[in-house]
């Protein structure tokens, strides 16, 4: 009760305050009785535009870049305020706001696809593979309605149906759009009608229409084509994979006949065949403007109707502007392909043709040629189209299309003296893209040989040939082939030759690239120049030993054998064994007359001793005597020991190359005479050594010694023209191998020679050792090839192999080994050795193995001879008398 009460005052008597919440005004100001006046709203909205300068077309900065992305999300955050502001101020919504408002109505997630993008032109919208569906398509169309100057829209693979695609197309009205891609959507009839209406518009600027795999069908296409026949803007049309049939072929014919602006037409994977194909290509025959056509996978030849192929040939023969054509996988059989090929021969403007999946192929010059074998589906261009290029990387495979593969016009030149020694006509060029087939080069007034060809981009492999002799240019790099080339090539009429190459020239293709807008001067399907050799009767070049590689070999003659015999007689102890002078002289003459048998037998048996200095060991001698049937009751094996000990000790000291533990040449002759003495004279079967020796020679020794004749092989197989030619043609290999494997045991200043160990290393490294050619045959090949030397006691020339002896040794090795021809490709199958092959062929078969152990520069540059090479060495033009 004692609290002081504050009296209540009227409102007018309250003191003035400066509170921010005070509604009082200064005295004299008029009070606004309407709290929501027009001026107040205006001030509020002006502040909103200052604070949020987005959301309307006045401030729309475009759909590209990070700022566009930020604007999109800011618009989403302030969507309500921006929408109210635009309505109050009657501002046009930006594409962001229009799109987001529709998203909000349909309760969808605010995905920015189509409305903003990171990069690219502002007038282009690319939504391919976004799978937006019809719901987002509706929202997107509202945003699209507010976009300006859209030139291109790509809606490929977006799960659109007729409803979604129609909504988008409706909102494209009024746009000067040039490209529309609706591929991989089921757009339906209504959407097609909107496209048709756009094309009917006189102001239409549409240049590219892609309706691939949209399921529009024949009826819709017929309506579309009826409009396109009068259209003057569309340049590129894709109607692929729509199951179009012959029903629409007449309309397609009218399109090709009357439309003057269409440049590219894609109809792959439809069912245009039979009379439908005839209609289509009749229209193409009357067309002068189409540049690219894809009509692959249409089963054009399914009905095996030659009339279809003839109509195609007629159209392609006359068309002057078509530059790129794909007719892959159309069931075209051989006779149909040949008909088309004939029509194409006169067409010099069609730069790229695809014919995979038919019974033909296209070569590097653009000719259609027949091919055997069933086509492989994986080679088709279904995944590598000629018009609609995929973004993914396709399998790389040369199809000889100048356009797709960007072929290059390249000039090849052979300059005599600079490129190589060849300087006379004809010179041929062999390109890998031609399967190495020769093409005649043109001789210029300056004396060079040139040829301009279209080649694939990148590294080009090639070589040259003069007549049929292959050669490589010194002006280009050389590259070793992964698989050696061995192929029968056709040079001119009546002339074919086998070419073998392990390395070829390689160069980077340089020149003008193939461009449809400005094609290079090289024309497709240009026939090659033809070489007509002069009609000359060639004469045979005489052949004999003095002009051969065998000329330096010293063959055994009577004089040389007599010198060898006198040397052996001198160092033997036979003069001490035979006391009677007359008997001694008779034995000497008898041995002299049969000395060649002793020498041949000694060389053959001693070669198997395995010793560095050849000699006959005890076991080898016993085997020889047993084969001669000399062991019996008159002469036992135990008797041999006495004779062995009598011969094994050298008569004189200093015989460096007499092993002392085995029989050298003169000791072999001596021990046979001692055996004769013991067998016949000691047992009183004969009175003189001469009589016993005659009997032993005729009944025991000569019949078996006749089997040992190195000279027989030499005369029957080795010393002939064919072997000489093969050795001459491969002389570079043989000289290189001999040089590499000789000289290790030569003294300083001494001429290099090849030892037995070095020859063994060569055979091992060259991989010519096999079941027929073992270490035993290696020793025989080496020693039987050596020339007979008089002195084999103080000189070692008889084990130092010269080059001419090496030629015989390696030939013997090839004869023993009997190697098959080298494997060139898996298609040839496994090689098979033939025992009946002549020696020259066996040597030729072994040369690739010897080449592998040559220095790299020889491997890269050596050119194997051909039949024509041998022919040129055997024949010549007649010599004027």
Automatic annotation (TrEMBL):
It comes from the Eukaryota. Residues 23-40 have a biased composition (Basic and acidic residues). It holds the Pfam family LRR_6. Coiled coil: none annotated. Residues 1-40 are annotated as: Disordered. This is Uncharacterized protein. It comes from Fabrea salina.
């Amino acid at each position: 009760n004692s609290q002081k009460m504050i009296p209540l005052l009227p409102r007018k008597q309250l003191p003035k305050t400066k509170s921010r919440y005070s509604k009082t005004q200064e005295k004299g100001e008029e009070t606004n009785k309407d709290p929501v006046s027009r001026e107040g709203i205006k001030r509020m909205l002006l502040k909103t535009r200052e604070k949020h300068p987005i959301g309307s077309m006045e401030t729309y900065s475009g759909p590209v870049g990070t700022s566009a992305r930020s604007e999109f999300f800011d618009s989403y955050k302030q969507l309500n305020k921006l929408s109210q502001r635009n309505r109050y101020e009657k501002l046009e919504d930006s594409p962001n706001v229009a799109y987001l408002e529709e998203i909000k109505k349909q309760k969808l997630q605010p995905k920015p696809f189509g409305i903003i993008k990171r990069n690219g032109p502002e007038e282009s919208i690319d939504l391919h593979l976004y799978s937006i569906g019809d719901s987002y398509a509706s929202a997107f169309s509202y945003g699209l309605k507010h976009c300006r100057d859209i030139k291109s829209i790509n809606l490929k693979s977006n799960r659109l149906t007729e409803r979604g695609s129609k909504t988008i197309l409706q909102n494209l009205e009024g746009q000067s759009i040039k490209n529309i891609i609706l591929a991989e959507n089921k757009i339906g009839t209504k959407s097609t009608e909107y496209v048709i209406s756009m094309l009917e518009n006189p102001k239409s600027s549409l240049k590219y229409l892609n309706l691939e795999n949209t399921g529009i069908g024949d009826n819709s296409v017929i309506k579309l084509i009826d409009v396109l026949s009068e259209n003057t803007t569309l340049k590129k049309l894709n109607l692929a994979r729509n199951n179009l049939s012959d029903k629409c072929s007449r309309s397609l014919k009218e399109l090709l006949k009357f439309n003057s602006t269409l440049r590219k037409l894609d109809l792959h994977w439809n069912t245009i065949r039979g009379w439908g194909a005839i209609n289509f290509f009749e229209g193409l025959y009357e067309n002068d403007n189409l540049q690219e056509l894809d009509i692959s996978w249409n089963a054009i030849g399914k009905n095996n109707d030659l009339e279809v192929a003839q109509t195609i040939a007629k159209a392609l023969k006359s068309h002057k502007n078509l530059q790129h054509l794909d007719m892959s996988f159309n069931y075209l059989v051989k006779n149909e392909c040949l008909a088309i090929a004939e029509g194409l021969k006169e067409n010099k403007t069609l730069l790229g043709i695809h014919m995979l999946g038919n019974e033909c192929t296209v070569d590097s010059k653009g000719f259609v040629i027949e091919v055997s074998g069933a086509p492989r589906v994986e080679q088709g261009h279904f995944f590598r189209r000629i018009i609609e290029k995929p973004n993914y990387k396709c399998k790389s495979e040369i199809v000889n299309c100048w356009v797709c593969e960007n072929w290059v016009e390249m000039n090849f030149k052979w300059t005599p003296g600079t490129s190589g020694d060849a300087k006379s006509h004809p010179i041929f060029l062999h390109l890998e893209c031609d399967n190495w087939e020769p093409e005649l080069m043109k001789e210029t007034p300056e004396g060079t040989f040139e040829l301009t060809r279209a080649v694939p981009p990148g590294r080009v492999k090639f070589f040259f040939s003069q007549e049929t002799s292959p050669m490589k240019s010194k002006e280009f790099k050389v590259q070793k082939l992964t698989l050696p080339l061995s192929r029968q090539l056709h040079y001119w009429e009546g002339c074919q030759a086998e070419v073998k190459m392990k390395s070829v020239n390689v160069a980077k293709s340089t020149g003008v690239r193939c461009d449809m807008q400005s094609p290079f001067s090289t024309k497709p399907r240009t026939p090659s120049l033809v070489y007509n050799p002069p009609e000359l009767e060639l004469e045979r070049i005489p052949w004999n030993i003095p002009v051969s590689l065998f000329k330096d070999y010293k063959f055994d003659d009577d004089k040389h054998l007599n010198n060898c015999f006198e040397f052996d007689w001198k160092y033997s102890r036979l003069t001490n064994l035979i006391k009677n002078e007359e008997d001694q002289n008779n034995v000497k003459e008898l041995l002299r007359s049969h000395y060649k048998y002793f020498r041949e037998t000694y060389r053959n048996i001693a070669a198997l001793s395995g010793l560095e200095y050849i000699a006959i060991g005890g076991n080898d001698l016993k085997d020889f005597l047993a084969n001669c049937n000399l062991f019996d009751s008159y002469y036992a094996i135990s008797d041999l020991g006495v004779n062995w000990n009598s011969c094994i000790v050298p008569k004189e000291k200093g015989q460096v190359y007499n092993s002392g533990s085995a029989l050298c040449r003169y000791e072999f002759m001596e021990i046979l005479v001692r055996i004769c003495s013991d067998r016949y004279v000691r047992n009183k079967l004969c009175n003189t050594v001469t009589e016993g020796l005659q009997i032993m020679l005729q009944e025991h020794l000569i019949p078996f010694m006749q089997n040992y004749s190195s000279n027989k092989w030499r005369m029957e197989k080795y010393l002939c023209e064919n072997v000489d030619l093969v050795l001459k043609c491969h002389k570079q290999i043989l000289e290189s191998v001999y040089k590499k494997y000789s000289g290790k045991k030569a003294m300083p200043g001494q001429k290099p020679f090849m030892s037995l160990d070095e020859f063994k290393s060569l055979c091992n490294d060259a991989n010519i050792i096999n079941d027929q050619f073992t270490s035993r045959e290696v020793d025989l090949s080496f020693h039987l090839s050596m020339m007979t030397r008089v002195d084999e006691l103080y000189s070692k020339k008889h084990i130092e192999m010269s080059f001419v002896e090496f030629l015989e040794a390696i030939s013997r090795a090839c004869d023993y080994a009997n190697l098959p021809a080298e494997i060139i490709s898996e298609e040839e199958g496994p090689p098979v050795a033939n025992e009946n092959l002549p020696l020259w062929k066996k040597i030729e078969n072994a040369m690739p193995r010897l080449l592998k152990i040559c220095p790299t520069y020889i491997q890269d540059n050596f050119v194997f001879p051909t039949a024509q090479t041998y022919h040129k060495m055997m024949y010549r033009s007649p010599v004027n008398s």
